[in-house]
Amino acid sequence: VLCCKTRAEPTKGRSGEMSRTVVPLPGEYVWYDPALRGEFDIPVGAQVMAVTTDSLVFRTGEGEDVSLPLVDAETRLKSMHQNSIEGVDDMINLHDVHEAGIIRNLRVRFARDEIYTYTGTILVAMNPNKRMSIYGLEHVQRYRAAKLTDQSPHIYAIANAAHSKMVKTKSDQCIITSGESGAGKTESTKLILQFLAAQSGKHSWIEQQILDANPVLEAFGNAKTVRNYNSSRFGKYIDIHFDESGAIQGAKVEQYLLEKSRVVTQNENELNYHVFYCMLAGLSENELATLHLLPHAEEYQYLTEGSCPPLVSLHTQEEWQGICRAMKVLMFTEDEMQNVRSLLAAILHIGNLRFRALEISGLDASEIISQDTCRIAADLLQVDEGGLKQWFTYRSTSAHRETSVSPLSVKQAEDVRDAFAKGIYSHLFQWINEKINWSIHRPEVCCERF
Q: Which of 98, 110, 223, 376 has its CA 20 to 30 A from that of 252?
């Protein structure tokens, strides 16, 4: 039971008699319960700043000063336990076990740049949105042979605990990374992979390939959203294979639920997938000319739907070169990489196709206005230009061994255009994932899996 220093203040009860209310002293910490609370409002931690004859003033964790009549202190304030004041690294040890206590504990630790907190074997990670010097080789060494509770909470400790149990019990282990957009799932996954790759003490080629799979998948599957500049727009499951000693022998990546709609439209202040902007920033003048591209993203409809400029810090020539290097490590050939560039360029040109309304035999119809753009797209896709035009502006229906062809309106043609672009990108992303697995998956190796 927490004992606080208090003082008694005389107040008048309903009968007019004097009663005594116990109130906290200045400097003490309390839980303040607002009188009117919304659905998601909870009590907040606060420090008493001053006490007068009829009220007290306290400051919340957000820095807001609140004045409270003494008569309400008994029902609106509760004492705060010492470990809620200082914060604990494992919330199982919290005395004030309620939502407000959990949130305050995370806030207190986050203010000290302690972004990791345990709840038993669960690690809660707070995204600092800045670089922190807690992921170097010395930290890998510190957590490599340590038990989960021997060191301060860290993502490396979780990775080490799973790896150690796998080696000891010869059984599969699983780490689940979950959270809302911007919580840091992508970065946490990369840190786990980096730690596991360092476990063997030697840097092998397969480990480098597994690490290089991340920037490639991020380039094609991540994008800026209103909440996160590098948000994964697809789900993935990574199966890592180890030998008897615990060294990585291979891996397999399964991807699912790619957000295909982002290819053709984005919400306000959001962007398309990183790879488009990186490609425009990174290709040489000759390479751009070969693909009939301009280096400015605002020239392409699919890249400007969200009315948001590219990320200067991320969409750079260096970033594109890093993507290309990673693809080479993953055994993409020059011809394959050129085909990837051609497909990406074709999608941008398809997005710039415009249609004009016509009437054919009393039916709404359309035709392509931007003939040159259609020709370029057909060349990049290595398909017949006439067939591509026909596909965009007419619909074929087969029934009873007969095929009828009817024209499409402008709106229908635009829908077909966008569906075609989404289909190309979806199949491209799936092929890239399969190519990565071809490089890093070693099904012939008999090994324990994690």
A: 223
pLDDT band at 204 (very low <50, low <70, confident <90, very high): confident
* Token pair recorded at residue 65: 């000063």
Across 2-11, 310-319, 359-368, 431-440, the highest mean pLDDT is recorded for 431-440
The residue among 114, 311, 355, 108 whose CA lies nearest residue 219 is: 311
Look at residues 324, 131, 299, 297 and name the one whose alpha carbon lies nearest to residue 223. Answer: 297
Residues 6+ apart with CB under 8 A from 1: none
Q: What is the DSSP letter of 2?
A: -
Q: Per-residue pLDDT for 190 more than 60?
A: yes
Distances from the Cα of 331 to the Cα of 99, 106, 204, 427, 433, angstroms = 49, 43, 15, 19, 12
Q: How many residues does the chain have?
A: 450
Return the closest-CA partner of residue 45 out of 72, 84, 7: 84
Predicted confidence band at 390 (pLDDT cuts at 50, 70, 90)? very high
Q: Rounded to whole angstroms, how far apart are CA atoms 26 and 423?
A: 65
Show Cβ contacts of residue 229 under 8 Å, excluding neighbours closer than 6 positions.
311, 314
- Residue 29 half-sphere exposure toward CB, CA atoms < 13 A: 16
Torsion of CA 377, 383, 384, 385, to 10 degrees: -10
Q: How large a percentage of the chain has pLDDT more than 90? A: 71
pTM of the predicted protein model: 0.84
**Cα dihedral angle (108, 110, 112, 115), rounded to 10 degrees?**
130
Residues 9, 395: Cα–Cα separation, whole Å: 84
Which residue(s) pair with 242 in the sheet? 248, 448
CA 236, CA 428: separation in Å to the nearest integer?
A: 16
Question: Cα-flanking dihedrals φ and ψ of residue 152, to 5°?
Answer: -65, 155
Among 252-256, 276-280, 399-403, where is mean pLDDT lowest?
Answer: 399-403
Token pair belonging to 63: 């820095």
Provide the residue type at 313 as one letter.
S
DSSP state of 62: T
**Cβ atoms within 10 Å, residue 284:** 10
Q: Can you read off the two tokens belonging to residue 175?
A: 């780490």
Separation of alpha carbons 281 and 296, rounded Å: 8
- Measured between alpha carbons, how far apart are the two ends of the chain, in Å? 44
Alpha helices in 112-201 (DSSP H): 137-144, 155-169, 185-198
Residue 267: which pLDDT band, with cuts at 50, 70 and 90?
Answer: very high
